[in-house]
Automatic annotation (TrEMBL), chain A:
Cited function: Part of the ABC transporter complex MalEFGK involved in maltose/maltodextrin import. Probably responsible for the translocation of the substrate across the membrane.
Intracellular or extracellular location(s): Cell membrane
SUPFAM superfamilies listed in its UniProt record: MetI-like
Assigned keywords, A-Z: Cell membrane, Membrane, Sugar transport, Transmembrane, Transmembrane helix, Transport
Main subcellular localisation: membrane
Protein name (database record): Maltose/maltodextrin transport system permease protein MalG
Lipid bilayer topology: Multi-pass membrane protein
All copies of domain ABC transmembrane type-1, residue ranges: 70-262
One Pfam family here: BPD_transp_1
Transmembrane segments: 12-34, 74-95, 116-135, 141-161, 182-204, 241-262
Swiss-Prot/TrEMBL GO biological process terms: transmembrane transport
GO cellular component: plasma membrane
From TrEMBL, chain B:
Name of the protein: Sugar ABC transporter substrate-binding protein
Signal sequence segment: 1-27
Key words of the record: Periplasm, Signal, Transport
KW Ribosomal protein (keyword) present: no
UniProt record similarity statement: Belongs to the bacterial solute-binding protein 1 family.
GO MF term set: maltose binding
Phylogenetic placement of the source organism: Bacteria, Pseudomonadati, Pseudomonadota, Alphaproteobacteria, Hyphomicrobiales
Pfam families (alphabetical): SBP_bac_1
TrEMBL record, chain C:
Membrane topology: Multi-pass membrane protein
InterPro entries from the UniProt entry: MetI-like, MetI-like_sf
SUPFAM superfamilies: MetI-like
Main localisation: membrane
Protein's UniProt name: Sugar ABC transporter permease
Segments passing through the bilayer: 9-29, 71-92, 104-123, 160-182, 203-224, 263-284
Species this chain originates from: Devosia nanyangense
Length: 276, 410, 300
């Protein structure tokens, strides 16, 4: 047996190249975000700078309406997640617990919906939202994100539901409990870990989605974070890189923190849902 | 304010989101205005104009949609396809023919009073005239020029060039200065073709021949690109131009690493903020068989589908008042499109601006032809192939000309 | 009562079915409809033109170039991701000091949107103003700045590497999930039998991981095949269309050149390619696995 210490050294050495490559963009982001504007284009480029310009963050916040974009992103991501779960839980439950005609067809349909990239469908989606009068409305994003994530959430939830022993519910029915009661009081509490995992997936995907948000959202007040940051870069005659990077840092850090806190649940969720 | 809007959104989420509730009743006339974002000042500027206008005209509300330049055409395409086109929009004048040809742009002759019309500089008005009708108003303009780093020229002991022979000779001398490059050549993404047109025009060539076919298969066009290719091969440009966008080249110039670049007036405020110690000078493009500069304008267009053209026009007239135009041109660093602003002391005495404005009498504009973006893309691809040495210049240009003629249906 | 029970599962799937039909099904039909019509520069339909759009696509040399690069892109990114993610997951599944930190770092790329990642990389990779070259030169690994995105082969390779980097977190998470669900007793039994670690990996871990690897392949292929931001932000398919894949070419056609009919046709072709891939894959791999699973059930 190799000692834990020896393993630690070997493993970190093996991971080192990857860790460096992963951290590189974060480091670039950070040192660009906090340096004074005059030092953006020094030659040769340096990691160091003369002083920390925390004001960059304040300036950026005011100039780019960062707070508004943050709230918009939160609203869209949370609502899309809730909506996706509301639609997925019953569907996953049905797939896991019942045999019914068209079950295979339904599963194939879900897989097919995974195959379409929003980019490919953007024109059709846009026409659809126009018909619903939802253009320039954050709710158009909520619905679309929920729909595009549903296949994955249903699949995840279903594989997890499969691992919850049927006997538990059956026992409750024996005791005279209604199906509804057993579902709410016995089944769903057991399924909470899987719901957390799928919620995180949906949340992250919605938080980072870009193309649809760019197409559907018209006014600056309704921009989500990725669109807001992109609009600082795309085709301007003058790109204020320190502000772009400051915004990127601020948009990333909260997600990264939540992630590091929840990642063990993520893995556990993946593990419990035997993939089928 | 923000929070309230957000809360209201949340409350309406289920109802509006799932059922698609109708918009609330509007008493005001709503004018939708799509604005191209030139810099971080663009949005706030137009908000200010709109607010001032609404104060005078409480019955009209201007809905601004500020769109990044790179996605403007996509936005307008989806809008038109989806039937939600705005009432007015800023567009690149090079797209105007496509809009006019599809019946999307509304001619403005009927709205344009003679007094209003006389405020514009004719050079900038000309590209918006299609088949004798004015299809839009110039809203932003720039001309291009050469910018040189005087410190490097002093070090190399040469004078800034006035023609291509001197340009090439100066580049040879500048190349001897260590750790710098003589000429910044753009080879990536937007306006890579423009960098070539500067050379094409001054060598006496043109984008289209008199008969409307592509001018890329002419001897002048070949000479123009061969000059660039020679300079790349001899190390007179920065290495690998195909890795350098317009912005990258300008950034290198700010770093003091380039002797000569071709640029636009909007770079000046950036240099003042980011590289205040740089000693630069604005000069006309080197001359060959002809003098030329590239005039670029953007157009304010009225959509023929608009139901509130009168209100929209009222806003346009308001926004073209001298005080607003002046503020816009100063803020973004554009050349004025109206005579009164152009007469301001700043635009007549400032040497930088004068350097750019000097070329206007002989400025060339991108031809107003259909499918311009695709033609430009073909030119960009051809330039990249030549710069990379994938295809010989003569063969590449012939192929490009044939392809462009095909796109034009000739 | 009985019939009510039978309709219960249908009622449960109806909401999700309706949502998917509306948001995804309708645009697909709209797309198919559009692809058979002449479409104006701004997306207005101008009447049927049969298969002209498809004919135009199939006579376009750029289409074939993009198709070929899409294959390279997808195979390279998905293959590279799987090859890296499996050992990473094995390492992260083992006990060592700082494992929690290592897991967090490996997952980090997931926390930024692809667009932003690409923007930051483009800025860092810049030939002369980028920090990557500056750092490599400081370390004396290179003497001259490398122009990462100047030529198509180099740019494409760089984009593939970044593609792999951002796909690792998701894939590793799936694998870690798989590894932590391995039956411990099987491992203990094999230890007793004196199996070497390598044999253990080959004969025990990998077979047990198969369903997880399969799902990782299917999902990654779908995501990577359709992925726009990395290539679009870094090179826009250039130089000289040398890094164009189908989705970037499609985007250019639709939103820059306004050839919406042709773009719709390419969308449908892309959908078809993915559909064929998935069907073949599901039939070949998943069925084999189902048989194995059934055999396992029976022997219980």
């Amino acid at each position: 047996m190799i000692s834990k210490l020896k393993k630690t050294v070997i493993y970190w050495l093996l991971l080192a190249p990857l860790v460096i490559v992963i951290l590189f963009p974060f480091a670039v982001m950070f040192v660009t975000a906090v340096r004074p504007r005059e030092e953006l284009f020094v030659y040769p480029p340096r990691w160091t700078f003369s002083q920390f310009r925390w004001d960059n963050f304040v300036d950026m916040w005011v100039k780019t309406n960062f707070g508004g974009a943050l709230l918009n992103s939160l609203y869209v991501s949370v609502s899309a997640t809730v909506l996706a779960l509301l639609f997925s839980i019953p569907a996953a439950y049905a797939l896991s617990r019942y045999r019914f005609p068209g079950k295979g067809l339904y599963r194939n349909f879900l897989l097919m919906t995974q195959m379409m990239s929003p980019i490919v469908l953007v024109l059709g989606l846009f026409r659809l939202m126009v018909a619903f009068g939802l253009v320039n409305n954050l709710n158009s994003l909520v619905i679309t994100y929920a729909a595009f994530n549903m296949a994955f959430t249903i699949w995840m939830l279903q594989s997890y539901f499969n691992t919850i022993p049927r006997e538990l519910e059956e026992a409750a029915w024996m005791d005279g409990a209604s199906h509804y009661f057993s579902l709410v009081k016995i089944f769903l509490p057991l399924a909470v870990p899987a719901m957390v995992v799928t919620a995180i997936f949906t949340f992250i995907n919605s938080w980072n989605e870009f193309v649809l948000a760019l197409t559907m959202i018209r006014s600056n007040d309704d921009f989500t974070l990725p669109v807001m940051i992109f609009s600082q870069v795309a085709g301007r005659y003058q790109i204020e890189w320190h502000h772009v990077m400051a915004a990127t840092v601020l948009a990333t850090v909260p997600v990264a923190i939540v992630f590091s806190w929840l990642q063990r649940y993520l893995i556990r969720g993946m593990a419990l849902g035997a993939v089928k | 304010m923000m929070f309230q809007k957000w809360k209201a959104l949340a409350f309406s989420a289920i109802a509006a989101g799932l059922l698609g509730a109708a918009a609330p009743v509007q008493a005001q006339t709503q004018v939708n205005f799509t604005v191209a974002e030139y810099s971080s000042k663009t949005g706030p500027y137009f908000e200010e104009v709109a607010a001032a206008f609404e104060k005078q005209n409480p019955d009209i509300h201007i809905n601004l949609q500020v769109v990044p330049w790179d996605t403007l055409l996509q936005r307008l395409t989806t809008d038109i396809a989806g039937g939600t086109a705005p009432d007015i929009s800023i567009i690149g004048t090079r797209w105007l023919l496509d809009f006019a040809g599809q019946g999307i742009a509304e001619p403005v002759d009927a709205y344009l009073t003679p007094e209003f019309k006389s405020t514009f500089i004719d050079t900038f008005m000309a590209p918006s005239v299609i088949d004798g009708k004015i299809m839009g108003l110039p809203v932003a303009a720039s001309a291009r020029a050469m910018m040189v780093n005087m410190d490097l020229f002093d070090k190399a002991g040469v004078k800034p060039p006035t023609n291509w022979d001197e340009f090439y000779a100066a580049a040879k001398k500048l190349a001897a200065v260590p750790d710098t490059f003589a000429f910044g050549l753009q080879g990536k993404e937007i306006e890579t073709d423009a960098y070539y047109y500067y050379s094409l025009w001054t060598h006496g060539g043109d984008i289209l021949k008199a008969d409307g076919t592509s001018g890329l298969d002419t001897p002048e066009a070949l000479e123009a690109v061969k000059l660039y290719k020679t300079m790349i091969d001899e190390g007179l440009t920065q290495p690998s131009p195909t890795n350098y966008t317009r912005e990258d080249v300008f950034n290198m110039f700010k770093q003091g690493k380039l002797g000569m670049i071709f640029t636009f007036p909007m770079l000046i405020p950036q240099i003042k903020a980011e590289a205040p110690d740089l000693h630069y000078q604005i000069l006309p493009f080197p001359e060959g068989k002809a003098k030329a500069t590239y005039g670029v304008t953007d157009t304010l267009m009225v959509f023929s589908s608009s139901k509130v053209k009168d209100a929209a026009w009222k806003f346009i007239e308001f926004a073209y008042k001298d005080e607003w135009r002046s503020k816009f041109d100063h803020g973004e660093g554009f050349l004025p499109v109206t005579k009164n602003v152009a007469a301001e002391p700043y635009y007549t005495t400032d040497p930088d601006i004068a350097g750019f404005a000097a070329g206007l009498p002989y400025a060339k504009f991108a031809p107003t032809i259909a499918n311009w973006e695709e033609i430009a893309d073909t030119t960009v691809r051809t330039m990249q192939q030549i710069y990379l040495g994938q295809v010989a210049p003569e063969e590449a240009l012939k192929g490009a000309a044939a392809e462009i003629n095909k796109i034009r249906g000739l | 009562m009985k019939s009510a029970l039978r309709s219960t599962p249908l009622l449960m799937i109806v909401p999700s079915l309706l949502l998917a039909m509306f948001i995804i099904g309708y645009p697909i039909i709209d797309l198919a409809w559009t692809s058979l019509q002449e479409v104006s520069r701004f997306g207005q339909l101008r009447g049927f033109n049969g298969w002209d759009n498809f004919a135009e696509v199939f006579s376009d040399p750029l289409f074939y170039g993009s198709l070929w690069r899409t294959v390279i892109w997808t195979v390279a990114v998905v293959g590279g991701t799987l090859l890296l993610s499996l050992p990473i997951a094995l390492i992260l599944n083992d006990e060592f000091y700082g494992r929690g930190l290592a897991r967090v770092i490996i997952m980090l790329p997931w926390a930024i949107s692809l667009t932003m990642t690409a923007v930051v990389w483009r800025w860092g990779l810049n030939g002369r103003a980028g920090l990557l070259n500056a750092t490599l030169m400081d370390l004396h690994l290179i003497a001259e700045p490398v122009e990462w995105l100047a030529t198509a082969p180099m740019a494409f390779a760089t984009e593939i590497l970044i593609g792999i980097l951002v796909s690792i977190p998701f894939t590793t998470t799936i694998f870690l999930g798989g590894l932590s669900s391995m039956p411990q007793d099987a491992y203990e039994a094999s230890m007793v039998d004196g199996a070497k670690r390598w044999d253990q990996l080959r004969y025990l871990t990998l077979p047990l991981m198969r369903p997880f690897i399969n799902i990782a392949i299917v999902l990654n292929v779908i995501y990577v095949f359709n992925s726009l931001p990395i290539i679009w932000v870094m090179t826009e398919g250039g130089p000289a269309n040398g890094t164009d894949i189908l989705v970037t070419y499609l985007y250019k056609l639709a939103f820059r050149f306004g050839q919406l009919g042709k773009a719709s046709a390419i969308s449908l072709i892309m959908f078809g390619v993915l559909l064929v891939f998935t069907i073949i894959y599901v039939v070949m791999v998943m069925r084999a696995e189902d048989d194995g699973g059934a055999a396992g059930e029976a022997s219980k």
